[in-house]
Amino acid sequence: MEKMNRVNTISGRTMFCHLDAPANAISVCRDATQVVVAGRNIFKIYGLEEDGFVERLNLRVGRKPSLNFSCADVMWHQMEENLLATAATNGAVVTWNLARPCRNKQEQLFTEHKRTVNKVCFHPTEVNMLLSGSQDGFMKCFDLRKKESVSTFSGQSESVRDVQFSMKDYFTFAASFENGNVQLWDIRRPDRYERMFTAHTGPVFCCDWHPEDRGWLATGGRDKMVKVWDMSTNRVKEIYCVQTIASVARVKWRPERRFHLATCSMMVDHNIYVWDVRRPFIPFATFEEHKDVTTGIVWRHQHDPYFLLSGSKDSTLYQHMFKDASRPVDRANPEGLCFGLFGDLAFAAKESLMAGPPSVGDVGRKTYPGGDRRYPIFFFKKPDVTEQFAQVSSALSVFESEAGSSVGMDWFINTAQSYLLSGKPFAELCEHNAQVAKRLNRLQESTTWTMLRIMFSEPANPSLSTNHNLNKSGNLPLVNSFSMKEMSAALNERNKENRQDNIHSLETNLNNNDENEETEGSEGQAEYLFGDAELDDDDLYSMEHDNQAAEEPEYLLPQEAFPLRHEIMDHPSAPEPVQEKPESPHVSGSEAESMCLTPMESISLISVSQLLFSPHLPPKFFCPIVKEMLCYYAEQGDVQMAVSVLIVLGDRIRKEIDELTQEHWYMSYIDLLQRFELWNVSNEVIKLSTCGAIMCLNQTSTTLHINCSNCKRPMSNKGWICDRCHQCASVCAVCHHVVKGLFVWCQGCSHGGHLEHVMEWLKQSKHCPAGCGHLCEYT
Amino acid sequence: MNENADICNHCRNMIREKEKGMKMSRRISTGPSSFIPENEILGAMPLSDSTVMFLDEEFSGRVDNLTQVMGLHPHYLQAFLRCHYYLLRMDGPLPLHYRHYIAIMAAARHQCSSLVCHHMQEFEQIGVCSDWLRGLEFCPQRLRNLNEINKILAHRPWLITKQHIQALVKTGEHSWSLAELVHAVVLLAHFHALASFVFGSGVNPDPEVTEVNGVTDDLCPLAMAGLCTCHLTNGNQANGNPLRNPDTGSELEALMERMKRLLEEREDDDASEEEMFTRFEKEKKESLLVVSAGFDEEVVPPSPVARFVDDPSFGYQDFARHGEDNPPTFKAQDYSWEDHGFSLVNRLYSDIGHLLDDKFRTACDLTYYNMASHEGVDTSMLRRALFNYVHCMYGIRYDDYDYGEVNQLLERSLKVYIKTVTCYPERTTRRMYESYWHQFRHSEKVHVNLLLMEARMQAELLYALRAITHYMT
């Protein structure tokens, strides 16, 4: 009854006050009306009023406060309301008596620890007993009536991070250590610990006994875990484990809620979480008020679960109301959506949402309500009345992609495997890839490859003759291939005949183009080449300049070519009306051609018009377009195309695209390839890439650990003889020579040898060549 | 010397073979270290089995001079190698060639040509972007942006602020991700500290480094000619064995006596806070006076190294200077490696925290309970004094340490050595190395060096990580 009354008197709201300095620890007095805040530069007592904190007392007195005031920890006695203890960073343990009449409330000073004291703890029921744990590896028990410690407990030079008296067992206390251990001690036996177990990897920063359940201890460590241990049995058992996102600095059981505990972290994460240990994945409640790491948390009253106090490095002291906490569960998305590698789509949502009859559009959808045998993803828990979690059950739907649909990724695998990226002349690579794309019904990609071949092939080299041959066989996958055939063939012939003609053809073609532009307006790339409106002068000039420099030594007809182009560039519009008349038949011709193009194929018109200039336009000329195209593909998500083109074009385009973008594309493509387990292709891509960062990929994780086949000990990688048993390792079972290079072996009997030898052997016999009698299997 | 770990005969043979191999290829230098007689090092290599295996795997069996000197402390060597190879070879946010380039940049700040050459060679072997080796102006802007924190961390780490981090991380073309930055920072600190060790123990440059690769040859003409900076200190080698100096026989006893007295005094030493504070300040100030000879002349970096150094005039300045506004003291309890540094570093660059943790712990806890000829001595006080003295010079203060101990335990010549090795290692000379602790073994002096190296690395890391933490919050 008394308890109830006391609880009822507590009221308040979420509130905070500014401290002058960062807090290291806080503690409340027994009747929950005052809180003490301690830190390096602060040691104050605040009163908890209805609508705010009121500073009651500043314990930091003196002209030049000593290091004894620099507190790592503070504890208010739970029996004696005037008694406080602090742990100082310089190794002092200080007790304070608020009843002292003078300003300086310091009562006793123990300087027995050699290093920082991390924790002090009063005995829950014994008035005069104080325990401390220090960095120097010792725990000391003080009797406040005496001047020095009554007993010392040694942690074998491991730093003590936390000490806590058990709430239920009078003589027991727990200590947590920097090496991950937790020890249980009997206060009467300082010679050795009762129990020790390893709780975490790395330091255990905190521990807390359960207020009700005897033998339950919660620990939090640098390994970001909170674990709950049951010590009531002979073997210490881990009963719950909560994985948080940062190292756990403090842990405190929530009063009156058996499975709840509050944690805060030491670094990076500033929130306070309240967990239901049975639901370790989502915090039950979160307090997000602090702007820097929370250093101290304490429940305001030991029988009231609704008020939490916290101090922080951001120099604020908060009182959190539980009803104001944010509940991550409410914000959690109970729907899940995931694409499978092969285009399957899995979708899970609340069962209630999925209950409606399938709509007409749901073709290919398979619904698996919870508990389906094929997808046993759910387990049903019996609702627990003490749990405050909403029971959510959801249904999973899996949408399988139909074979050959656009969602499926078969094309990707096929393409990756069939594309040729190196090893042949450029034109053949393009041709091959174009066919691959066509075969897979990817016309745009196919066209792109063809265009690339045309753009970048040099006219006088065999690539054109290939082109020719292909034309004959009618293989060119262009819709308007006729125009290209004609043009390129004609061009080719003329090329062979003589230059004059070539110029002539050029001239006419140029005019053609101009007319095209006139007649068709926005259609086609010609505009881009000659349109005065589209390109600003700077671009034109710089382009000319480049061309001059690049071409002069290489091309046959620089002199003739240049005046021609200059003329056009300088006066692009002037001659046109004049020329229109004499050339009119041509105009109609080209118009007719372009008319029959479907909009989608309009790109090919570009290639036509550009093809005509190819003897005189350096490949560089096309780079901006190609670059744009690559970016387009990458944007569309078809990074495969971008990378393949990048590799095939090699130096022709590489300098145009900045390294980082290239690297990004490569990485994405390699990542995709590896997901589809296309290791060979991905390795080829890595090898062919020119980015430093990508090529490096092949040099990571290249260590191969070999054990000797005789003595099974690790081999040093020097030579082929095992250092330990002095036998040749990896001998071929067929020819009895050492295998240097590919070694294949049966996983059943671990005999094997040269790949060819074993293959040959297996043609004749099913048994192991080593004569062990095993029926070898090689997959 | 060190307790002989049980190793199988076979291993011993292997080591012996390895040593033979070393002798064959050793032409320029006279042993792994120019400070320590060759037989001292070769006589004591009881490496554990796993270390030998590790060496075999990661180095293809090659043991360079640095490893040999460090091999005086096999236990530490193992922790060191693990960390070293994790940083350089294993999965991490930075590409391999970046890592070696950062190593070069870091070592170049201390003009440590042997480390620079070694990593230039490693860089070559990766086979990409080899034109970066022509100098800083040939490497990407992103790497050049690291120059600023490189020089600050190397010489005056207390100046690093969250603005520096912000400048590197802010979105833009050459920005760093936090994970990459942490990797880079750890690499920088690691190689600054390693340079300290190289100079502090007089590790000779590896002959192979200059022999193997044609390109490196012309880049390292000085090392080739055996004129590496640490070699310059080789002059007075003919002085015979300075170890057994009869005049200083009492020195060791005096030190032991002081340690004993401190232990006893501790109980009734009731120094006030002001007293403790003044002791720290005094130690900090006194470290100013500890200046090695020839301070004024600026050492001109040897040419192969200079191209990796930006702003070479930026050097060490004392943390606490008279009559100036000193930066605030770094309170170790507010940002410690165990609590804060570890969590941050491990969060951004997984597993490195454990390896560094292991390395720091091994270095700090390493002891053979020996002091020179005396056995069964608890040296923890001495070790802590060394560690904390380095941190003191970098302005890091431990509340729970009485800096009076430093004064009692570390003699002046040792302080000169410590200051030189940690703050401007390139000025270390053989004379400095020999001038302290005359009766101690070389392995013990190497132990001192390990402590200095780790303390320095931790100090740099603490400042850098604190800046990153500030940036993140």
UniProtKB/TrEMBL annotation, chain A:
<dbReference type="InterPro" id="IPR001680">
    <property type="entry name" value="WD40_rpt"/>
</dbReference>
<keyword id="KW-0833">Ubl conjugation pathway</keyword>
<dbReference type="InterPro" id="IPR037590">
    <property type="entry name" value="WDR24"/>
</dbReference>
<keyword id="KW-0808">Transferase</keyword>
<dbReference type="GO" id="GO:0016239">
    <property type="term" value="P:positive regulation of macroautophagy"/>
</dbReference>
<comment type="function">
    <text>Catalytic component of the GATOR2 complex, a multiprotein complex that acts as an activator of the amino acid-sensing branch of the mTORC1 signaling pathway. The GATOR2 complex indirectly activates mTORC1 through the inhibition of the GATOR1 subcomplex. GATOR2 probably acts as an E3 ubiquitin-protein ligase toward GATOR1. In the presence of abundant amino acids, the GATOR2 complex mediates ubiquitination of the NPRL2 core component of the GATOR1 complex, leading to GATOR1 inactivation. In the absence of amino acids, GATOR2 is inhibited, activating the GATOR1 complex.</text>
</comment>
<dbReference type="InterPro" id="IPR036322">
    <property type="entry name" value="WD40_repeat_dom_sf"/>
</dbReference>
<feature type="repeat" description="WD">
    <location>
        <begin position="110"/>
        <end position="152"/>
    </location>
</feature>
<protein>
    <recommendedName>
        <fullName>GATOR2 complex protein WDR24</fullName>
        <ecNumber>2.3.2.27</ecNumber>
    </recommendedName>
</protein>
<dbReference type="GO" id="GO:1904263">
    <property type="term" value="P:positive regulation of TORC1 signaling"/>
</dbReference>
<feature type="repeat" description="WD">
    <location>
        <begin position="197"/>
        <end position="239"/>
    </location>
</feature>
<dbReference type="GO" id="GO:0005765">
    <property type="term" value="C:lysosomal membrane"/>
</dbReference>
<dbReference type="GO" id="GO:0034198">
    <property type="term" value="P:cellular response to amino acid starvation"/>
</dbReference>
<keyword id="KW-0863">Zinc-finger</keyword>
<keyword id="KW-0472">Membrane</keyword>
<dbReference type="InterPro" id="IPR015943">
    <property type="entry name" value="WD40/YVTN_repeat-like_dom_sf"/>
</dbReference>
<dbReference type="GO" id="GO:0006914">
    <property type="term" value="P:autophagy"/>
</dbReference>
<dbReference type="GO" id="GO:0061630">
    <property type="term" value="F:ubiquitin protein ligase activity"/>
</dbReference>
<keyword id="KW-0479">Metal-binding</keyword>
<dbReference type="GO" id="GO:0061700">
    <property type="term" value="C:GATOR2 complex"/>
</dbReference>
<dbReference type="Pfam" id="PF00400">
    <property type="entry name" value="WD40"/>
</dbReference>
<dbReference type="GO" id="GO:0008270">
    <property type="term" value="F:zinc ion binding"/>
</dbReference>
Automatic annotation (TrEMBL), chain B:
<protein>
    <recommendedName>
        <fullName>Sestrin 3</fullName>
    </recommendedName>
</protein>
<keyword id="KW-0560">Oxidoreductase</keyword>
<dbReference type="GO" id="GO:0016239">
    <property type="term" value="P:positive regulation of macroautophagy"/>
</dbReference>
<dbReference type="GO" id="GO:0005737">
    <property type="term" value="C:cytoplasm"/>
</dbReference>
<keyword id="KW-0963">Cytoplasm</keyword>
<dbReference type="GO" id="GO:1904262">
    <property type="term" value="P:negative regulation of TORC1 signaling"/>
</dbReference>
<dbReference type="GO" id="GO:0005634">
    <property type="term" value="C:nucleus"/>
</dbReference>
<dbReference type="GO" id="GO:1901031">
    <property type="term" value="P:regulation of response to reactive oxygen species"/>
</dbReference>
<dbReference type="GO" id="GO:1990253">
    <property type="term" value="P:cellular response to leucine starvation"/>
</dbReference>
<comment type="similarity">
    <text>Belongs to the sestrin family.</text>
</comment>
<dbReference type="Pfam" id="PF04636">
    <property type="entry name" value="PA26"/>
</dbReference>
<dbReference type="GO" id="GO:0016684">
    <property type="term" value="F:oxidoreductase activity, acting on peroxide as acceptor"/>
</dbReference>
<dbReference type="GO" id="GO:0071233">
    <property type="term" value="P:cellular response to L-leucine"/>
</dbReference>
<dbReference type="GO" id="GO:0070728">
    <property type="term" value="F:L-leucine binding"/>
</dbReference>
<dbReference type="InterPro" id="IPR006730">
    <property type="entry name" value="Sestrin"/>
</dbReference>
<dbReference type="InterPro" id="IPR029032">
    <property type="entry name" value="AhpD-like"/>
</dbReference>
